[in-house]
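Bump. Still looking for Exocyst complex component structure tokens.
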Amino acid sequence: MAESLPEHERILQEIESTETACVGPTLRSVYDDQPNAHQRFMEKLDACIRNHDREIEKMCNFHHQGFVDAITELLKVRADAEKLKVQVTDTNRRLQDAGKEVIAETEEIIQCRLQQRNITTVVEKLQLCLPVLEMYSKLKEQMNVKRYYSALKTMEQLENIYFPRVSQYRFCQIMIENLPKLREEIKEISMSDLKDFLESIRKHSDKIGETAMKQAQQQKTFNTGLQKQNNLHYRKNVYINNDVIPEPRNEIVSKQNFEEEEEHEDEVLTAHDLVDFSPVYRCLHIYSVLGDAETFENYYRKQRRKQARLVLQPQSNMHETVEGYRRYFSQIVGFFVVEDHILHVTQGLITRAYTDELWNMALSKIIAVLRTHSSYCTDPDLVLELKNLIVVFADTLQGYGFPVNRLFDLLFEIRDQYNETLLKKWAVVFRDILEADNCSPIPISNEEEYKIVISKFPFQDPELDKQCFPKKLPMSQSVPQIYIQVKEFIYASLKFSESLHRSSTEIDDMLRKSTNLLLTRTLSSCLQNLIKKPHIGLTELVQIIINTTHLEQACKYLEDFITNITNISQETLHTARLYGLSTFKDARHAAEGEIYTKLNQKIDEFIQLADYDWTMVEPDGRASGYLMDLINFLRSTFQVFTHLPGKVAQTACMSACQHLSTSLMQMLLDNDLKQISMGAIQQFNLDVIQCELFASSEPVPGFHGETLQLAFIDLRQLLDLFMVWDWSTYLADYGQPGSKYLRVSPTTALALLEKMKDAKKNNIFAQFRKNDRDKQKLIETVVRQLRGLVNGISQHS
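Sorry for the wait, here they are.
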């Protein structure tokens, strides 16, 4: 209890000394104390209040007289205050009346100041808004004049610089809302321009490609002419050393080429000159500014790929004319020239990897198209023009950095096809020459005609040169014509080999291979067909053999000709040889075989005219008419063979004699012939004697001794055996190497003897004559012995 009293005093002191706003915490401590503390505090507070009241009362009692005096003074002043109030009121009234005008003027001044301040504020705001409005107006003007890239830049300035200054105004919000719409409008318009551009270059790509290919061709012609001019001095020295004067035409042509190139130098056009690329640049810049460059790149590449597929799709009849190929190549070149230009003048729109990928895709398609369409070409001139176009096409794109090795590989495939078309064309040429040939030696009337022939064909014959005019060359007119056509074929084949970027050695090898095909396949086939034709006689076959001999000799001149036009040295080791030797040998062998066949056929025709009376008693005393006609035919025929090589004529003569001997032997042994009289054998012997006389007369020079007569040895021994009736000698010497009748076989002798035996049996009067009966018995005895020999041979075999 005693402790709480000081605490209450302390609280009361704090309340008296603390501001009223801070009394709360102090009062709260009264209630937080011990129980009944509040009552005790209120008692303490009441006691404190009573103390203060007593002090106030003391103080009032002490100052009461002074207060009364002050009130008295105030009452005195009250009257003066009333007067002063009236005076002040009057003064105020008069002052108010006097200040009304001042107040009106003051209000006017205030209003003017307010307006002036507002005007200043408006001017400041207008000065802040006018650049925005001017920039927006500029934006609208740029949109109207289609300066879209500048318009986008203006939008960026508006958004970054001007709009933040006036963002609180409603018109600014409207402008801000319009900007995305304007951007989309610009994107749509620029994309539309790009589509128009893509459509334009699709239509004009052939013109672009045609110009690029023409420039590449002119550049190549210029370089070729320059190279020829550089080599001209060297060639002059070589020609002078070899006493040959070069033609000045080369210099004239070179100068003309240089002059033409100089004229074209001022007219060089590029893709940029032919096409307005500004839509691409503009659209690329616009999309880059809009942050959508990737979308533009993807769209551009996608559309160009589609256009590439359209360009690479050829027309169905492209192979019919060279213009179809030229248009196809021009479109492709134009496409890739545009892509190359875009690659070099833009940053990132397309890349080298993209163009390489596109080119590889296009190259595969181009090769497939050319391989297909070129296979339809049957005209070598068209194939050659196609080759020239491919070379220009490849050179043009190679100049733009595109790899074209596969195109040159394709040209080697087309070269084989070109050679095939040439072979077909020259097959017709050779066939016409051979059909028009009269198969007779070329008549020469004078020196001029001789020089004309010699200029066409390398013919040399010192013996013929010594003869006087008129004279005849051994070959027929077809030989120089064929030789000329072979050279024309070589020229035609060379045309394709030019500009293939191959060495002279490779070109020389290609020419020789194609010429070999011409000789071994085309010309050989034409000669073989000519030889097999039924209307070709022996005289024509002889002339064909002579012609092939001269053509074979001319092959070395063809080899020299190829070497000269390809500028290959004679010491080149890897040069292929011409197969003309084997070609003409095969044709000659075929002609020789045909001569043998036709000669035998002619002999058979004469043999069919034979009309023997096989039962005659006595011979006519002279040879048969058909046989004499046959021998005369053989004599005249072998006279034609004088121009043939010796072995050919000898082989033909031997073959004819052997065939004649065989035919006569078959006539005697014919199964249809049942009876032969001795008189018929004697008559037959007269014919064989004529044959032997013909063989001994050496119808063809070169036979040694009785070589040709041996063709009739079988007949001679058989006829001698029957004419002499020397059966004892035959049977005794049979099987001996030195037998007189070594060439007579028992089978042949038996067959002829049985025919004579049958003839004896049918002779009724011969049976009553003793000599004839004895001879018949002898025949039967010889027949039995011959049969024994034949059976012995059969058992032994």
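The longest helix spans residues 37-144.

Edit: fixed formatting.
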